[in-house]
Amino acid sequence: MKRLLCALLMLVAGQLGAVDFDYRLSAVMIAKDVYAFIGKTEDFSTDNGGNIVNTAFIVAPQGVIVIDTGPSLRYGQQMRRAIAAITAKPIALVINTHHHPDHFLGNQAFADVPIAALAETRNGIAADGNAFAENLFRMSGDWMKGTEVQLPGQTLNAGVVDVAGRSLRLVALDGHTGADLVIVDATSGVVFAGDLAFNGRAPTTPHADVAHWLKALDQLEALTREAGFKVLLPGHGAPTGDAAPIRQTRAWLTWLSAAMRDAAKAGLDMNASSPICR
To answer: pTM for this one?
Structure first.
């Protein structure tokens, strides 16, 4: 009896400590035929599995356009199932907005369909993808099990393109990384800003060129003033019907740039001067 009781207690303890690795993705309609999966405003952890990013999809006349695929194979697989619960249309194209891992490590779940990105984004994923994946393994643990880098096979260029019967305007900018793709869907009025815009959280800056980023924000804000604009989807944080995330991101970058200049004038070294390290 004692052995049986101990075994039952161990089983219960194991179940309580188990992780189901379910991202609980819920597609939110942000415009007609446009959906987003809104990530948590947190850092990477073994609790959230890296689900801190916004991904999205457009249900076009002839198929589905996926915009970013999340931080892991599991995320991509669950994203694909969530899309199938909305529409039976096939996936026509996957687009990676830039080469940060939470935006492309779900590509593996879409390996049977075309995956596309700007040329420099493709190069960045090829050069840094494996190191990014290893780093996310350290931060997110077994959520990443089975995840491997799946490179985009097609190159996108700036301009207007037709994808599955939907006209998209591709705007090639940079600043957050060396290549940041903004996607404008004129049909719905949605601007997919990628990580050029953050809402309600500090931007990440491992590959940032702040001067270029600020310039890109001006161009991005101009897109929100065009006729037909309805929704801005930032890379992180809630979607909005105005340019508030752009203004937030600009204010933070301006503060960061001033703080770094002041620290340099004071003769502080990089670790002591960086506001991010405090």
So the answer is: 0.90
